[in-house]
Amino acid sequence: MKEGDILIGVVIKVYPSFAILLFPNGETGLLHVSELSKGYVRNFTGYVKVGNIYRVKVIEVDEAKGFMRLSVKALGPSERRLGYNKAAIRENSDFTALRNHLSKWMGGNV
Description:
5 strands; five-stranded mixed beta barrel
């Protein structure tokens, strides 16, 4: 993935000021509270939950560290819509990577 790419990912871990998203190819990225909205986000963990699906823009990639920064607010209004282009969502949202990791994260109980 490269800077400027628009992706659809699922939240797999939430911290007080950032969340980790997983993408269908198995890569992960960081969505910081400052990149969620142009306005103030009072309660990040109350708004962002594990399992939420977001369309995000890649704003930084550091391949040496395996680090990818993501942004929702960098998307244009038409790019933010998740449910209106159902064909594109079906094509780009194969969450096999999530299914493959889920058992490990849940302690093998899935």
